[in-house]
Amino acid sequence: MELWFTEHHNDCIGYSLKVKRTLNSEETKYQKLDVIESEFYGRVLVLDGILQTTEKDEFVYHEMIVHVPLFTHKNPKNVLIVGGGDGGAVKEILKHDTVERIVLAEIDERVVENSKKYLPSISYGLNDKKVELMIGDGIKYVNEHKNEFDVVIVDSTDPIGPAVGLFTEDFYRSVYDCLRDDGIIVAQTESPFIYGNLINKLSKMFKKIYPIVKPYICTIPTYPGHLWTFTMGSKKYDPEAVDVNNIPEIETKYYTPELHKSSFVLPKFLKDIFEEA
Ligand code: SAM
Fold this sequence. Notes:
Layout: E1 3-9, E2 13-27, E3 32-38, E4 42-47, E5 50-54, H1 58-72, E6 78-83, H2 88-93, E7 101-106, H3 109-118, H4 120-123, E8 131-135, H5 138-143, E9 149-155, H6 169-178, E10 179-188, H7 192-209, E11 212-219, E12 227-234, H8 257-262, H9 268-275
Parallel strand pairs: 6-7, 6-9, 7-8, 9-10
Antiparallel strand pairs: 1-2, 2-3, 3-4, 4-5, 10-12, 11-12
The structure holds S-adenosylmethionine.
């Protein structure tokens, strides 16, 4: 019998992958966690029925959520990731020689443990000596740390369960205080095709708090809608003013200096969503 995993959205959209076998299924303290081996995308981490990352296309999301803010900041040393327990963002941050300390504030230690066990090609950076693993609510961590980080990356699940508070104005204000004077926040802000209203709402919040606010895009084969957004809030640096000729060379599969710039060029309907905010 053929087995398929299907992710559902808005009760009318489904995205399916053919499953070879299930490697693990458990109820953690916070969510239902599955690791499956898919026919085409390799191993896949699923939380509460929503695909988080796959071995085959994880590089797109993780490179874009990391290299765009880190190459926008002039000298990022301290980086905080909220969520991101799979370790994909950590793996990319470790490519930046300026970075001295990476704090990963992940609420669910079972995500970290499963990623280490089943997704080593994504999680291998988690044991690096620069990484501090803080198991707990990222909101609490941010509230308790002021003027400390150069870049904060919100690598969260969709706004359900423990992640609801990561999509609020209060949280983005606390992140502002957690950042140094020239700090940058980037959050994953979902698909404009499916969650355009959410992007509009989040853009409004960011514009109230950060002097420079810019959404940028990439294409992720396994995320719903495929066209994906990140929203950057910056206290000082403009990500579009980056000198692309001076970006140091690192090993990537998606990100390039040219793409850094072009990712801020938005399709009309998304530009409208952002400008109306
Ligand atoms: N790339 C992914 C995506 O967009 O689907 C997100 C990956 S990462 C696995 C998301 C992580 O956020 C999960 O491991 C989840 O446990 C964590 N998370 C959710 N709410 C959180 C919170 N309040 N504090 C810290 N981590 C949280």
